[in-house]
Amino acid sequence: MNRPLRPLTMLALPLLLLSLGTAQAMAAPTAAKPASVSDTERRVTPQPFDARYRLEVSGWPNASIEHRLIRDNHHWQSRMNASIAVARGNERSRFFLTPDGVRSVNYASGYSLFGIGGDYRLGTDELSKLPDRQAALFDLSLSALNGSCQEEAGCRLVYQDHRGREESLDYRVHDRETLSLPAGEFEAVKVEVMDPETPDRTMTFHFHPELPGLLLAVDYRRDGKRKSRLRLTSLDTQAP
For residue 187, what are the contacts with CB-CB under 8 A and spacing of at least 6? Predict the structure, then answer.
């Protein structure tokens, strides 16, 4: 059964592929081999950044999004914030890289629409087996950048949503493309993300090829029609 698109989720966290789907069916996906720390350091090295986006959602005012990746000793912290007149959203994740991939240690998020919303937290115990969705996004970008997903049928990413419920996404990595964005012209790694429960929906992610976790653009389509898009408007790689 298809789950409805939650407008606040799209406004607050445009990275969330979580309740979206695809217009294409996949053969049985296999789990991607996690990118090891040595592979990560050799191919793409995580770097702090401060990115800003414009999010356009059909039927809603445009929103400005801020996404920061910060180094915190041996950990990384991914933070995202968004707000418009009637809604706000924020999400942050603290994680580190291991030989088996990304390991989450703390997650928090909060949302409000017309003054009604909630706050959510996941601690080390809840995150011991599966990453939160911010860390999972970082892991997805590493997989795409480092070529960890080599299966023709695509690969699968398993993670937890903001309430700690298990979710899974199927994805395919495509050829690189050149994008002209408000922030400039970039080479981009294209990834098509799919939720098996919503076969009428698709999200196309474009990741920066040298900055893991950094989105350049996202397009969300339902029944072949674009319902929202995210575009990078500025980028600072000197973020603390």
Answer: 176, 177, 178, 179, 209
Q: What 3-state DSSP class applies to 96?
A: strand
186: β partners: 179
Question: Can you tell me whether residue 20 is helix, strand or coil?
Answer: coil
Q: Which of 155, 142, 110 has its CA nearest to residue 210? A: 142
In 3D space, the residue among 25, 8, 54 whose CA is nearest the CA of residue 201 turns out to be 25
The whole-model pTM stands at 0.80
Alpha-carbon gap, residue 42 to 52, rounded angstroms: 28
Q: Retrieve residue 219's tokens.
A: 């397009």
φ/ψ of 189, rounded to 5, equals -95, 120
Phi and psi torsions of 13, nearest 5°: -140, 80
Q: How far, in Å, CA of 72 to CA of 105, rounded?
A: 13
Instruction: Judge whether 209 and 187 are in contact, CB under 8 Å.
Output: yes
- Terminal CA-CA length for the chain: 44
pLDDT digits (tens, 9 = 90+) for 140-187: 898 888 887 776 677 888 888 888 999 888 888 998 999 999 999 999
Q: Which two tokens stand for residue 229?
A: 């898009």
Q: Convert the pLDDT of each residue in 94-141 to its tens digit.
A: 999 887 778 999 999 888 777 777 889 999 999 999 999 899 889 889
Residues 137, 37, 101, 134: what is their CA dihedral angle, to the nearest 10 degrees?
-20
